[in-house]
C-alpha cells in the first residue's frame, strides 16, 4: 500500500493508481542500483503532493509578481536557509526545476554565447550540460574537454591545467555523472584562479555524501555549486544553485527571469523537508554507509574478476568495464533487470563501442543503503550480478529467473519508504 495512501487517485483514476502501485511493488522487489536513484521518505512524498502545487509564485520571497504569497514565502525561505546550513554556503537558490536547468543558469549568469567552457568529456564520465556537442551547452558555447588518464581512470589534472592555460575558458566544470573517485576541488580551484575562470562544481551525484560528511565539500573552492536534490541527497526531483554572496544576484537573475517562470512550490516544500532530514545525525550515518557499501561491493566484484574503472570507488558509484566478460553493457543490464537487479548500461573511458551499446555498467549504492542493506550483503549482490552476467553471455534465462526469486526473497525483509507490501 502506498504511504501516504492514495484513495482519491484509486477512486478517480484506477488505471493510473494501478500503475503507481505496480511501480511501487517493482521498486520494492528489485535491488535498485541505478546511481542517480534513491527512495524518499514518506514526509517528502507528502510534501510533494500538497495543495502547494496550486499556487503560482514568480519571483522570490518578498518580491513576487502574484499576490497570495503569505505562506509560500516562508516555505521557500525555510528551504533556502536549510540549504545554506546543510552545505555551509552564503547563498542558495532552490527554484531550478532540475539539474540541467540549474547548470544552464550558471551559463546564463557568467557567460556570453560563444564563450569557451571546460568540462569533463561525456564518455569519460562528464555530463551533457558540461559542453557536450548534442547539448545546448555544446552548441551555444565553445566546449573544451578534458579526460581521465587511460592508465588510472582518474581525472588528468595536468591535462586540465594545460588545456586551461591554452584555451582560457571563462567557466570550468568539475564533477560529472560517472566519476567513482573523490573530486579534487582545491586543485580545480587553483587552475581556475590561474586562468581567471569561474569554477562550477556539479555535485548532483555526491550532494548527500557531502551533506553527510562522507565526501569533501567544494565550498570555499568553487564560485558556484549546482546539484539535484534527489540521488544521494534523498529529496524530490528538483535542483539548487548555491554560490558565494558575490554571485547571488547573478545566479538569481539567471534562474528567474532568465530561464524559468514560477517555481514548483510543492517541490520546494519537499526540498525543505529533505534538507531538514539531511541535517540529522542519522543522515551522516547513512552517507557513510553508502560509501562503505560501495567499497564492499567494488571489492567483491574485483574478487570475481571484474574490471572497475579507476580500480574501485571513493563514493557511491562503481563503473564496470565488461570487455573481459564477453558481453556488452546493454544486454547485461537488461538481463540484470529481469533478474531483479536494476542498474544502467554506460560508456567507459576510451570505449570502442557505440553509446547505445557500450561496454560498461554503472552501479550505485544509495537506494539499497536507504533500504537498510549493509556491507555484509554486498558479496551476495556481487555473486548474483556475476551469475547473471555469465548467464546472459550464454543466454541462460533459467539463472536469471532463479536470481530474481532470490532477490525478492531477500528484499522482503527490508522495508521500503513510501510503500508497504500487502498480501
Q: What keywords describe this structure?
A:
single chain; 423 residues; alpha/beta; Aspartate Aminotransferase, domain 2; Aspartate Aminotransferase, domain 1; 16 helices; 15 strands; transferase; pyridoxal phosphate; glycine hydroxymethyltransferase activity; methyltransferase activity
CATH class of the largest domain: Alpha Beta
Ends apart, CA distance between termini: 10 Å
Number of helices: 16
Structural class: alpha/beta
> What do we call the CATH homologous superfamily of the largest domain?
Type I PLP-dependent aspartate aminotransferase-like (Major domain)
Work out the radius of gyration: 22 Å
- Low-pLDDT runs: none
- Total domain count: 2
- Helical proportion, percent range: 40-55%
Total number of β-strand segments? 15
* CATH fold topology of the largest domain: Aspartate Aminotransferase, domain 2
Can you give the mean pLDDT? 97
General form: globular
Pathway: One-carbon metabolism; tetrahydrofolate interconversion; Amino-acid biosynthesis; glycine biosynthesis; glycine from L-serine: step 1/1
Subcellular location: Cytoplasm
Domain Serine hydroxymethyltransferase-like: 11-385
Binding site for (6S)-5,6,7,8-tetrahydrofolate: 122, 126-128, 246
Summarize the structure.
The chain is an alpha/beta fold and 423 residues long. It has 16 helices and 15 strands.
Describe the structure.
This protein has about 425 residues and is of the alpha/beta class. It has two domains: about 45-280, Aspartate Aminotransferase, domain 2 (3-Layer(aba) Sandwich); about 280-410, Aspartate Aminotransferase, domain 1. Helices cover about 45% and strands about 15% of the residues. The chain is built from 16 helices and 15 strands. The protein has helices spanning about 5-10, 15-30, 40-50, 70-85, 100-110, 135-140, 155-165, 185-195, 205-210, 250-260, 265-280, 280-305, 330-340, 365-370, 380-395, 395-410; strands spanning about 30, 60, 65, 90-95, 115-120, 140-145, 170-175, 200, 225-230, 240-245, 305-310, 315-320, 340, 345, 360-365. The strands form four sheets. Strands 4-10-9-8-7-5-6 form a seven-stranded mixed β-sheet, with helices on both faces. A hairpin with an 8-residue loop joins β11 (about 305-310) and β12. α3 (about 40-50) packs antiparallel against α11 and α7 packs parallel to α8 (about 185-195). The longest helix has 23 residues, at about 280-305. The mean pLDDT is about 95. Belongs to the SHMT family. Homodimer. It catalyses: (6R)-5,10-methylene-5,6,7,8-tetrahydrofolate + glycine + H2O = (6S)-5,6,7,8-tetrahydrofolate + L-serine. Keywords: Amino-acid biosynthesis, Cytoplasm, Methyltransferase, One-carbon metabolism, Pyridoxal phosphate, Transferase. Its cofactor is pyridoxal 5'-phosphate.
Amino acid at each position: 500500500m502506498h504511504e501516504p495512501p492514495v484513495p482519491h487517485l484509486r477512486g478517480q483514476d484506477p488505471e493510473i493508481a494501478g500503475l503507481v502501485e505496480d511501480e511501487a511493488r517493482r521498486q520494492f522487489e528489485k535491488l535498485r542500483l541505478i546511481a542517480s536513484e534513491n527512495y524518499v521518505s514518506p514526509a517528502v512524498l507528502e510534501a510533494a503532493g500538497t495543495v502547494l502545487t496550486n499556487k503560482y509564485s514568480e519571483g522570490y520571497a518578498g518580491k513576487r509578481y502574484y499576490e497570495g504569497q503569505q505562506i509560500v514565502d516562508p516555505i521557500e525561505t525555510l528551504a533556502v536557509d536549510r540549504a545554506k546550513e546543510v552545505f555551509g554556503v552564503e547563498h542558495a537558490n532552490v527554484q531550478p526545476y532540475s539539474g540541467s536547468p540549474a547548470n544552464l543558469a550558471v551559463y546564463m549568469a557568467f557567460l556570453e554565447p560563444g564563450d569557451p567552457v571546460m568540462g569533463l568529456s561525456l564518455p569519460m564520465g562528464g555530463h551533457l550540460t558540461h559542453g557536450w556537442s548534442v547539448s545546448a551547452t555544446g552548441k551555444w558555447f565553445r566546449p573544451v574537454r578534458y579526460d581521465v588518464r587511460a592508465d588510472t581512470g582518474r581525472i588528468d589534472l595536468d591535462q586540465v591545467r594545460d588545456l586551461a592555460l591554452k584555451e582560457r575558458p571563462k567557466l570550468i566544470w568539475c564533477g560529472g555523472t560517472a566519476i567513482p573517485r573523490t573530486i579534487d576541488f582545491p586543485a580545480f580551484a587553483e587552475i581556475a584562479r590561474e586562468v581567471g575562470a569561474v569554477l562550477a562544481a556539479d555535485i548532483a551525484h555526491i550532494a548527500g555524501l557531502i551533506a553527510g560528511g562522507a565526501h569533501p565539500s567544494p565550498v570555499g573552492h568553487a564560485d558556484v555549486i549546482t546539484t539535484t536534490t534527489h540521488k544521494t541527497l534523498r529529496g524530490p526531483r528538483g535542483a539548487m544553485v548555491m554560490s558565494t554572496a558575490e554571485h547571488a544576484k547573478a545566479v538569481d537573475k539567471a534562474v528567474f527571469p532568465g530561464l524559468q517562470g514560477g517555481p514548483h512550490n510543492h517541490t520546494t516544500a519537499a526540498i525543505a523537508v529533505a534538507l531538514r532530514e539531511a541535517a540529522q545525525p542519522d543522515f551522516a550515518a547513512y552517507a557513510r554507509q553508502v560509501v562503505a557499501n560501495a567499497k564492499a561491493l567494488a571489492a567483491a566484484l574485483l574478487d570475481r574478476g571484474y574490471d572497475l574503472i579507476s580500480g574501485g570507488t571513493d563514493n557511491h558509484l562503481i563503473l564496470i568495464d565488461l570487455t573481459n566478460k564477453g558481453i556488452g553493457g546493454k544486454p547485461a543490464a537488461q538481463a540484470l533487470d529481469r533478474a531483479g537487479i536494476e542498474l544502467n548500461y554506460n560508456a567507459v573511458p576510451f570505449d570502442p563501442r557505440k553509446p547505445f551499446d557500450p561496454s560498461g555498467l554503472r552501479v550505485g549504492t544509495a537506494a539499497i543503503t536507504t533500504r537498510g542493506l549493509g556491507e555484509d550483503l554486498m558479496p551476495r549482490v556481487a555473486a548474483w550480478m556475476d551469475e547473471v552476467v555469465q548467464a546472459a553471455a550464454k543466454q541462460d534465462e533459467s539463472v536469471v529467473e532463479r536470481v530474481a526469486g532470490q532477490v525478492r526473497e531477500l528484499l522482503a525483509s527490508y522495508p521500503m519508504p513510501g510503500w508497504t507490501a500487502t498480501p
